[in-house]
Each structure stands twice: as C-alpha cells, then as structure tokens.
Amino acid sequence: MKYYLLFPFFALLFSLNFGFSQCRDFAKEQCKPKLAGYLHDGNYNGVVLHQEEEVELHKAFFSGQKYRIVVAGENNLPTIHFRITDSDLNLIFDNEESNFSDYFDFELDEAKTLIISLDFIRKEDAQLQSESGCVSILFGLKL
Amino acid sequence: MLIYRLGSMRKIIWSFCILLLFNSCNLFSSKNKEQVSESEMLEHQLMQENSEKMKKIFFVLPSPIEISLLIKNSGVRFREDLMNAKDNLPGYSTSPSRAIALGVYCADLSYASLNEQFQISIEYMNVSRNLAESLGVLKTVGQDKIRLLESNVTNKELIIDIISEIYMESSQQLREQDRYSLAALMLIGGWVESMYLATQSVDPNEESHQELIKQILDQKLSLESIKMVLRENQSDPIVKPIYLDILQLEKLFEMSMETSEMQDGTGLIDSVDQLVFVQLVAKIGDMRDYLVN
After folding, report:
1. Global pTM value
2. Range in A42-51, A80-89, B139-148 the model is least confident about
3. pLDDT the model gives residue B6
4. What range defines the domain where residue A130 resides?
5. How far apart are CA B128 and CA B106, in angstroms?
6. Is residue B56 within 8 angstroms of chain A, CB to CB?
7. Which UniProt keywords apply (chain A) (predicted)?
8. From the CA of A4, how many Å to the nearest CA of chain B?
9. CA distance B25 to B279
10. In this complex, do B59 and A62 lie within 8 Å of one another by their Cβ atoms?
C-alpha cells in the first residue's frame, strides 16, 4: 500500500477543516463585536464566498423584538453589498444607500420572513483583492 | 443553516460543452475578425449568465435564545417544572439522543437565564457543556469567559453570551465533522423544546396571554426553514418521523388562524381557533415527549 498517495487527501481534508474553523473564528472575533449592545442569538451563518457568487439567507423575524443584522467579510475582500427584502421582494434595506454600512437595526410591526442577499462590489483595482474569503451574517437581539 | 448550489455544476458543465463546441467550430471555419469577436462576445455572455446563477441559499431557524426572549417579554410566569430534568441525562447514551438533548437543554438554559434563574442556569450550562463534549464538540466556551462567570454568576448578558457560544460551536462543529443529521437534530431539539415551553406557559382563555399566543402562531413562518433542514436528512431513520410530525404541525398552524369580517363590515380580522390551538399544543407536547424520552 502506497500510503504517501493518501497525503493529498489528508492535506485537502485538513485545509477544508482549517477553512471552516478559520471562518468560525472570523465570525467570533471580527463580526460578533459589531453586535455591541445586542445579544448574539447563537446562529452561525458563515461561508467562504467567491467573487462570482451570491448568498441569500432566509429567516423569520418576529414583532416586538429589536434586531441587528451584521454582514461582514474579511479585510482583503471587496466591499459587500447587501439588501434585505420581505418574501414578496419588497425592499426593506439596501446598504448601498447607507454608505455600504455593515449592519442594520430594525423592529417589525408584524412577523415576516426576510431575505438577506449579498454579493461583492467589483472595483477596477480588483486584482489587489482576494478572489474568495470568509463572510459572516450574524443576528443580534436587544435584551 | 443549509446550502443549495442551484444546479451550478450541471450548468458549468453544459456551458463548458457549449463553449467547446463554439471553439471547435472556429477551428474548421475560415476565421475572420468579425466571427472571432462574435464568438468572444457569446463566450463572455455565457460566462456572465452562468456566474449570475451561482447562488448559495441558507435557511435559518430561530434560536432558543430568540424564542425564550419572546416568552420572557410576554410576561408569563417562569416554570421550572416544564424544563427537561437534569436527571434524564444518563439516559442519553447514543449520539442522536445526545444531539437532541443538547438542543433541548440549550433551550431550557436560555429560558432559565432570561428569567434570571442563575443557579438553575449554571447547572444546565454544565449539563450542556458535558453533552457537547460527549459528542466530540470541543472548546465550546473560552476559559476566560468561564473564569469571568465564576466571579459573577448573576451576569445575565454573560450567561446568554456563553449559551450562544455553546449553541453556535456545537451546531457548527458537528457540521464541520460531516455529522449533518446530528446538527439538524440538535437544532430541531432546541426549537421543539422552546415551543413546548411557550405553549405550556399559556392559557388560551387568559387575556394577558394573547400576545404570546400570537407569537407562538407566528412561528409558522419558521416551518419552511425547519422543513428544509429536515428534508436534507430525511434518509436518517430518526429524522424521518420528526419530519412527518412537522408536516402535521404545519396543517394545525394553518387551521389555527381564522379570518372573518369585522362586525361593522369595514375589513377582515384574524382570530385564533381555540380548539385547533389546543390540538397544536398537544401535538408539540407529543413531539417533545418523543424527543426527550
């Protein structure tokens, strides 16, 4: 048995797990502090995102509760553009109109499923930026 | 959290084949500049269309902390007797039962801590951490936070921060270990226990409980995410009956709200069908019994 043939497999496995935990650490260390004043609800939504990809996240939000949504990416990534719509695709928030803010605070009059969609803003100096990296979306609750 | 790549691989392969076809046609044709630029334009267009369809979609369940906060804000009385007893812990000897129990105890822990039951919270926190470790989930909470808690056991924000870390680390580490059905069972355990605590806390005839009843019925919006999480793991023999229960629960949610015309005829009003609501409460009770026993 040529055990050295297994080396690339284990290397891949290690790099995948390292990538996962790296994104989790990014969410905890870089993204979670942006929830200041709110309690993290415990949901982890992190992903390695490529420049050509989009992310869409569906979640129900309830009335009588103040929320904060934080959307953050690693420093070497392009600017993140995120939009929040209801399930009928009515626009609720677009961070492009708030100087690409990385968070949004809100409270709903009635329970709704919201869709948070995000992608990267491509710039001319794109070659200086990474092709992919960790992006996290965290939810905060006001106590 | 669930990811779907919407047929992206198949689209990439098809686009690649089409591109190859165009390129091979070019080899046999008399190349002039106009044709080359047309082919390049088409190639660019195909790549652009393909890249526009690369989308990752996530479905997120409300966490036990979120539902416990809704229960707390409604003002209903805290009831320790509703929580899953710590004495049940030795009975959870398999990985699936431990994953479900971890979700259940996280929900109980959220409920107790938001109601400022600090001693109970510390006890349930230890139970949850032990369960997480028995599932191979490591370092759920940093030592610095544990030390901070030891010196201030009545710090509610700190306790909830620790719960959110146990919940996040457990569900995510299970996924990273490719134990998706265990991660799903943990999330469902937490949701069902939170719903059990909420539904057992209300009296449908009590006026002051109507707001929490409305919040409970609003949870029908979460069913889509729950079904997505379970559907992905339906081949698991433990997940399948839970999925079927969720489908029955969905029908009760739909039947529990009645829409009728207002007496003055000026519009429509929603009201709760109390008979169906009682059935819904019983169904959640049955599901919870199945999960904790």
Report:
1. 0.83
2. B139-148
3. 43
4. 3-141
5. 7
6. yes
7. Signal
8. 24
9. 66
10. no
Amino acid B110 reads: S
Q: Which residues of A touch B55 (CB under 8 A)?
A: 53-56
Q: Do B69 and A17 touch (CB under 8 A)?
A: no
| Cα–Cα distances in angstroms (integers) from residue B166 to residues B17, B136, B139, B210, in the given order | 47, 13, 9, 32
ipTM given for this complex: 0.86
Contacts of B189 in chain A (CB under 8 A): none
Q: What is the CATH number of the domain that holds A131?
A: 2.60.120.380
What tens digit of pLDDT does each residue of B110-154 get?
999 999 999 999 999 999 999 999 999 988 888 899 899 989 899
What lies within 8 Å, CB to CB, of A60 at 6+ separation is A111, A112, A113, A114, B62, B218, B219, B221, B222, B225
43-72 of A, contacting B, C-beta below 8 A: 43-47, 49-50, 52-60, 62-65
How many domains are contained in chain A? 1
Average pLDDT over residues B160-184: 95
Residue in the structure block whose two tokens are 């109980």: B108
Domain ranges of chain B: 4-57, 64-292
Q: C-alpha B60: how far from its chain's center? A: 5
Contacts of B167 in chain A (CB under 8 A): 42-43
Q: Give residue B268's pLDDT.
A: 67
Contact between chains at B66 and A41 (C-beta distance less than 8 A): yes
- A15 pLDDT band, cuts 50/70/90, is very low
The residue written with tokens 């926190």 in the block is B125
CA A53 to CA B78: how far, in whole Å? 46
Give the nearest partner residue to B218 out of A21, A53, A111, using CB atoms.
A111
Strand bridging mode B55-60 / A54-61? parallel
pLDDT per residue as tens digits for the range B64-113: 999 999 999 999 999 999 999 999 999 999 999 999 999 999 999 999 99
- Nearest CB to B66; choose among A17, A53, A141: A141
Q: Which residue of A has its CA nearest to B59?
A: A58
- Contacts with B71 from chain A: Cβ below 8 Å: none
